[in-house]
C-alpha cells in the first residue's frame, strides 16, 4: 500500500498500548475478526488458515493527491517525508509565511478521502455539540532558568574576576597573598552564583499570524512550563507546543440516525473519516463509536458518534514522533543488514 512508513518497539506491553499512538497519527486502520474452520471463508487470499483463530490486518484507507511513483512503498516513504517537511516549515516560518505549509502538504502529501459527508440540511444529525475555545494569547513565555553553559561561564568569570581584584588589591597594599589565598578562593566561590538564572532565563515565542488576526486588544502572552532552561532545544519544543495549546480551537461531537442518508457498516465504519457541514464550514473527523440498540418499543436504533474530546497534538509534536519512528526504522534496517 501507499501508507506511511513506521516502526514500533516494545517490551512487555499490550498490543493496544503499542498500536494506539501510531494509529492516531496515521490514516490506516486495524481490523480484527474470527475465523472458524469449516464455517467461515478464508479472510485473505495470500495465506491459508488451517485452524480456528483470530486474524488481524492493517487497512489503508483510500487517499488522493501526493507523490505517485508507481512503487507503493516509495510512495509511502515520500508521504512520510512530505508531512515532516510541511510540519517543519510550519514550525520554523509558519508565522511569517502563513499557508506555505498547507500548500506543501496539499501538493506532496496524500489526503484521506472521507467515506461520506453530511450537510446542514441532512435529516440524520440528531445531536451536535460544538466546543469553541478562544485564543488565550498570541505569545508564550517558557523557561525560568538560564542555560547550564551560561551559568557555568558566568560563575567562572565572576570567580576569576574576584580573585584578580583581590590579588591586585593585596599586591598594592604589600600584603602577602599566601595565607589569604584560600579565603579569597572561598569568597569567590560563594559569590560566583549571584548571577545564576538571571540572563537568558526566559524565552518568548510568538504566533505572528494570530497576532495580526486578534488585533491590538488581544492578550499578549501566557507563561507556561516554569522551571525549565530558556533558549535550549527542549524549551523550543515546549514553546511550539505552548503556541498550539493556547490557540483557538473548535471541536465537535455529532450523533446521527442510521440510514439518513448514510448507513453504518455500509457507508462508514468505526475509524472511518467522515465529514459534516456546519454554518458553511466543513469539518472532518473520525467515527469514534457505533452503538446499536434493539428494543420492543423502538426497534433497532443505531447511534454513531463522530469526533472526540481528546486534546489535539501540535504539528511539531506529531513531527517529532514521526521522525523518531522513521529514524528507528532505518536504524533497525541498518542493524539487520549488518
Give the helices and strands, then pairings.
Blueprint: H1 15-24, E1 28-35, E2 53-60, E3 63-64, H2 72-93, H3 100-108, E4 111-112, E5 117-118, E6 125-133, E7 139-145, H4 148-172, H5 181-191, E8 202-206, H6 208-214, E9 222-229, H7 233-246, E10 249-257, E11 273-278, E12 281-295, E13 299-306, H8 315-337
Parallel strand pairs: 5-11, 7-9
Antiparallel strand pairs: 1-2, 3-4, 6-10, 7-8, 10-13, 11-12, 12-13
Overview of the molecule:
Helix 4 (148-172) runs antiparallel to helix 5. The chain is of the alpha+beta class and 338 residues long. The chain has a six-stranded mixed β-sheet with strand order 5-11-12-13-10-6, with no helix packed on it. Strands 8-7-9 form a three-stranded mixed β-sheet, with helices on one face. It is 36% helix and 26% strand. Among the domains are: 114-131 and 249-307, Roll (Phage tail proteins - horseshoe like beta roll fold); 148-197.
Amino acid at each position: 500500500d501507499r501508507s506511511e512508513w513506521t516502526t514500533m518497539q516494545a517490551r512487555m506491553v499490550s498490543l493496544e498500548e503499542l498500536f494506539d499512538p501510531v494509529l492516531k497519527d496515521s490514516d490506516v486502520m486495524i481490523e480484527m475478526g474470527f475465523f472458524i474452520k469449516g464455517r467461515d471463508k478464508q479472510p485473505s487470499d495470500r495465506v491459508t488458515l488451517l485452524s480456528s483463530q483470530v486474524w488481524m490486518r492493517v487497512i489503508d484507507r483510500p487517499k488522493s493527491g501526493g507523490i505517485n511513483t508507481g512503487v507503493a512503498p516509495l510512495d509511502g516513504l515520500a508521504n512520510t517525508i512530505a508531512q515532516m517537511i510541511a510540519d517543519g516549515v510550519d514550525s520554523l516560518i509558519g508565522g511569517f509565511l502563513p499557508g506555505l505549509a498547507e500548500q506543501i502538504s496539499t501538493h506532496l502529501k496524500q489526503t484521506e478521502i472521507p467515506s461520506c459527508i453530511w450537510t446542514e440540511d441532512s435529516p440524520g444529525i440528531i445531536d451536535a455539540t460544538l466546543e469553541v475555545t478562544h485564543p488565550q494569547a498570541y505569545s508564550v513565555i517558557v523557561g525560568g532558568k538560564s542555560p547550564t553553559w551560561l551559568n557555568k561561564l558566568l560563575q567562572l568569570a565572576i570567580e576569576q574576576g574576584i580573585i584578580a581584584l583581590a590579588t591586585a588589591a593585596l599586591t598594592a597594599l604589600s600584603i602577602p597573598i599566601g595565607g589569604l589565598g584560600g579565603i579569597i578562593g572561598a569568597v569567590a566561590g560563594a559569590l560566583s552564583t549571584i548571577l545564576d538564572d538571571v540572563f537568558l532565563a526566559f524565552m518568548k515565542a510568538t504566533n505572528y499570524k494570530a497576532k495580526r488576526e486578534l488585533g491590538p486588544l488581544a492578550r499578549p502572552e501566557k507563561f507556561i512550563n516554569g522551571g525549565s532552561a530558556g533558549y535550549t532545544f527542549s524549551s523550543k519544543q515546549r514553546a511550539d507546543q505552548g503556541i498550539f495549546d493556547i490557540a483557538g480551537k473548535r471541536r465537535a461531537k455529532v450523533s446521527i440516525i442510521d440510514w439518513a442518508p448514510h448507513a453504518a457498516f455500509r457507508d462508514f465504519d468505526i475509524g472511518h473519516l467522515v465529514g459534516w457541514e456546519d454554518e458553511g464550514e466543513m469539518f472532518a473527523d473520525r467515527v469514534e463509536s457505533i452503538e446499536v440498540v434493539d428494543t420492543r418499543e423502538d426497534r433497532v436504533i443505531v447511534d454513531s458518534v463522530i469526533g472526540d474530546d481528546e486534546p489535539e497534538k501540535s504539528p511539531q509534536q506529531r513531527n517529532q514522533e514521526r521522525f523518531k519512528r522513521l529514524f528507528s526504522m532505518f536504524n533497525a534496517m541498518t542493524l539487520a543488514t549488518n
